[in-house]
Design a protein that fits this description.
This is Nudix hydrolase. The protein is an alpha+beta fold. 26% of the residues lie in helices and 33% in strands.
């Protein structure tokens, strides 16, 4: 073993679940202190057969970036309070996953008892000044479910309180944003209006206007007829309003293997069956009718 590596203290680290290493540096450190520890640690990790190294630098430790890159680390991703660098030590194929590559958004379809759909005109963005009436849309926040984000966006933009019902469809668009490197996924969600919330109270900074529009009028807007994707989505909304047999995906609340809350989206009929038959006494998997 390298003599210098034996005598130099190592960086504090933890193993990950995939034969790699996690290092989380939060306290100020000089490059004179950091570089010997990093080099000694790399020797030790190679001797132990470690594969991927995750080096997390808290905001304020920018002085350690260049030395880490000089030892073979590369940028992985950054958040407001840290930068993540990675290095692959193994001769095996590099299996470090790429940075998150998808953005999740929703479009909200809310229909009242008069078969009028909730629509808005936006301030700013690609629809500004077009006169197009569109469904409320938005991006899901970190840690937020699709169903919860849909409810939030509708209330924020229009003041209408709703409950999530189904995902009617979703679409994906690759190389869509962030210098054309990321994928945008949009879920078309149906929501039910809560009693007593018929009156619209639009958001003032992002929404120019909001109203209830007869669904046929919404579908037949020139924009929706000329733009294929919008025509497809508008026709799904129309079909759903006419034929309740059009069944989407509903939620089944569950947990991951580590106990975190999670939501399974599946055919509404089956979701209703799963929700109705769940419980500690149930040990078998229900089958749909």
């Amino acid at each position: 073993m390298d003599v210098e590596a034996q005598e130099t203290p190592l960086l504090q680290w933890k193993p990950d679940d995939y034969g790699g290493v996690k290092v989380n540096l939060t306290e100020p450190m000089t490059t004179e202190d950091f570089v010997p520890k990093l080099r000694a640690s790399l020797v030790e990790w190679r001797n132990q057969g470690k594969k991927g190294i995750w080096l997390k630098l808290a905001d304020g430790l920018e002085n350690l970036i260049a030395p880490a890159k000089a030892e073979g680390f590369k940028y992985h991703h950054a958040e407001s309070d840290y930068l993540m660098l990675v290095s692959w030590l193994s001769d095996l194929h590099n299996t470090i996953p790429a940075n998150a590559s998808h953005r999740i958004g929703i479009a909200a379809f809310v229909l009242n008892s008069n078969r009028e759909v909730l629509v808005v005109q936006e301030i700013g963005g690609p629809f500004d000044g077009t006169g197009v009436w569109k469904l409320p849309t938005g991006v899901i926040k970190e840690g937020e479910g699709v169903w919860a984000g849909a409810e939030r966006e509708v209330e924020e933009e229009t003041g209408i309180k709703t409950t999530f019902k189904e995902v009617l469809a979703f679409r994906e668009s690759h190389k869509s944003f962030s210098e054309k490197r990321k994928t945008d996924i949009m879920f078309l969600c149906e929501l039910n209006m809560k009693p007593g919330t018929f009156e619209i109270k639009k958001e003032k900074t992002e929404i120019y206007a909001a109203k209830w529009m007869p669904i046929e009028e919404y579908v037949n807007q020139p924009w929706n007829q000329e733009k294929e994707l919008f025509r497809f989505m508008a026709n799904i909304c129309l079909k759903r309003s006419q034929e309740m047999e059009y069944v989407g995906f509903s939620t089944v609340r569950t947990t991951t293997s580590t106990g975190r809350e999670s939501y399974l989206y599946c055919n509404t009929d089956h979701a209703n069956l799963l929700n109705a038959t769940r419980g500690p006494a149930s040990t078998s998997t229900p089958t749909s009718r």
